[in-house]
Amino acid sequence: MSQSRQSIRKVLFALRDGKCGRCGCSLSLDFKFYGSIFALLHHINPKSKGGTDNYSNLLLTCQYCETLYHSTQPLISVREKIEDGTNISSAWRLA
């Protein structure tokens, strides 16, 4: 990323009205503000799968949505591999 993560957060915060891109809860850019939900930077299409750092591929999310998304990804990957006919034991290792 040529810009700092904080400057990207500020732009996305303004573009998305300070809302989580998944659940719509109000976010904060200030990590120290008590009771606030800190805005996390999330790639829609992961960089590991060819995703870019363009604003169109980035979301601000709350910690809950970010955790939920990443905790379900291995299960989704395994399910896709099983549906494609991949052996379940090898699918788990690939996920």
From TrEMBL:
Task: Kindly give the InterPro entries that the UniProt entry links to this protein.
Answer: HNH, HNH_nuc
Q: What Pfam families does the entry give?
A: HNH
Q: Which residues form the HNH nuclease domain?
A: 8-67
What one GO molecular function would you report for this record? endonuclease activity
Name recorded for this polypeptide: HNH nuclease domain-containing protein
